[in-house]
Amino acid sequence: MSLSCNDAQPCSLTRFLIEEQRAGHIEPDLRLLIEVVARACKRISIAVGKGALGGVLGEAGLPGAASMNVQGEAQKKLDVIANDVLMEANAWGGHLAGLASEEMDHSQPIPDEFPRGRYLLLFDPLDGSSNIDVNVSVGTIFSVLPYAKQGQDPVDADYLQPGTAQLAAGYCVYGPQTTLVLTVGHGTHAFTLDREVGSFVLTTRNIRIPEQTAEFAVNMSNQRHWQPPMQAYVGDLLAGKTGPRGKDFNMRWVASMVADVHRIMTRGGIFSYPLDAKNEAKGGKLRLMYEANPMAFLVEQAGGAATTGRQRMLEVRPADLHQRVPVFLGSKGEVEEAGRYHREHDATAG
Ligand SMILES: O=P(O)(O)OC[C@H]1O[C@](O)(COP(=O)(O)O)[C@@H](O)[C@@H]1O
Ligand SMILES: [Mg+2]
Ligand SMILES: [Mg+2]
């Protein structure tokens, strides 16, 4: 029996990963690590799907005393559940040296009593938390980095590798369908969860993001806080056909990065969360290690581009585990266009 995926043979994630291993694209233990993460995503998908019936909606913590994460944000029950699922699944997995989560102050080495591996896993366990209680798509984002110091506990500094060092990245969107989108550095591929069978099935091999687009995603309510190049860029998008861009643009904003990026993976577009007067002191809103870098890797592997507006995202040198950055990603032509507004502004501002 042939193990290779073909049109007649739906390809499970397991089978796909074995093929990637045979092609020399991934090590066997990275394959197994991705399987563990995918299993955890299935469990999170089930928890998300239960909603009010499962008692998983609402804030974590006691009434009147919301539990806060390291980012100073109130945690939802599902933020905590998703974090626990990923932690527990991976502690036992045997493929990791340590983990870091958007929800935890510091990275955690795999305890001594468990087998240790050669990878570091970083994740945003539940992205789009503000959408949990209103039954709108949320997701999980993850990134895998190498760890070479065998026999030593990894510390936060070991995670501060640029996005170009990522060995794998992915997200799982919990929407009308649960879809896992994955790269191991050889294209970006989508797997849809067959809920009856309980396995992820390859549904799009080699996603290609259209280079040009007429759709942008940004939280327009922040417009008055933006810096001049962003004001100028979006001003020209809004001017439409009669403006300098010469075409009308549509706008979408789900407020779950995973869902917004998934739309861009499907039909193109540009997603941006720029610097503004509210987030400037923190460096931006979105997190480099848990959100921007894995998404940038996935988007580049799908033929798109990802920048801070001024620099390729994957080349940013991280200084802090919870570092925040401005984000522009999606259709290559449009991301370059946004970068041009920043360059021209910086040149004239001296
Ligand atoms: O509240 P805003 O400004 O619309 O921001 C939404 C953005 O914040 C995020 O929800 C941040 O992610 P978390 O829910 O993981 O904190 C992104 O998913 C989304 O793009
Ligand atoms: Mg997030
Ligand atoms: Mg989150």
From TrEMBL:
One of its GO terms (cellular component) is cytosol. Its EC number is 3.1.3.11. The gene is fbp. Binds 2 magnesium ions per subunit. GO terms for biological process: fructose 1,6-bisphosphate metabolic process; fructose 6-phosphate metabolic process; fructose metabolic process; gluconeogenesis; sucrose biosynthetic process. It is an enzyme of class 3 (hydrolase). Pfam families: FBPase, FBPase_C. It comes from the Bacteria. SUPFAM superfamilies: Carbohydrate phosphatase (SSF56655). Mg(2+) 2 binds at residues 124, 127, 291. Homotetramer. The keyword Repeat does not apply. Its main location: cytoplasm. The keyword Repressor does not apply. It catalyses: beta-D-fructose 1,6-bisphosphate + H2O = beta-D-fructose 6-phosphate + phosphate. Pathway: Carbohydrate biosynthesis. It is found in: Cytoplasm. It comes from Lysobacter defluvii IMMIB APB-9 = DSM 18482. NCBIfam families: PRK09293.1-3, PRK09293.1-4. Residues 12-204 form the Fructose-1-6-bisphosphatase class I N-terminal domain. Residues 209-342 form the Fructose-1-6-bisphosphatase class 1 C-terminal domain. Coiled coil: none annotated. Keywords: Carbohydrate metabolism, Cytoplasm, Hydrolase, Magnesium, Metal-binding. Substrate binds at residues 127-130, 219, 285. Its cofactor is Mg(2+). GO terms for molecular function: fructose 1,6-bisphosphate 1-phosphatase activity; magnesium ion binding. Belongs to the FBPase class 1 family. This is Fructose-1,6-bisphosphatase class 1.
